[in-house]
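Input.
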Amino acid sequence: MALFNKDQIMEIIPHRDPFLLIDEILEMEPGKRVVAMKYTKEDDFWFKGHFPGYPVVPGVLMLEMMAQSGAAAMLFLPENKGKIGFFGGVREAKFRRQVVPGDDLRLEVEIIKVKGPVGIGKGLATVNGEKAVSAEISFALK
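Output.
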């Protein structure tokens, strides 16, 4: 059962369709960790061109899904309300399986370091318990 639905997520982070890439938040410890979901559908905008006849979620969009999930955990804190989380970098990204239309992507992000407006999160995206993507993502809040 969702802790936050898409409308509630839009009250936390500034992203909007077509670039709001998380559908639900299942668990959250503000400023510490989050578990979110992205339910892929055949009509998701990226599948038309990536790749025709062999649709696959672009890896960079899976990183963005993790980043939006982590942003929700940070921006839920009262002192960060109304701020925007900007990507600072990606390290150790590993893509382990293709994600295709109909896959439910579980996005887990743990915030492992914060110093002022800058932080680092450790992310893992899975489909049915199988690792799809892992990465360390850094961010800056403004």
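The radius of gyration is 14 Å.
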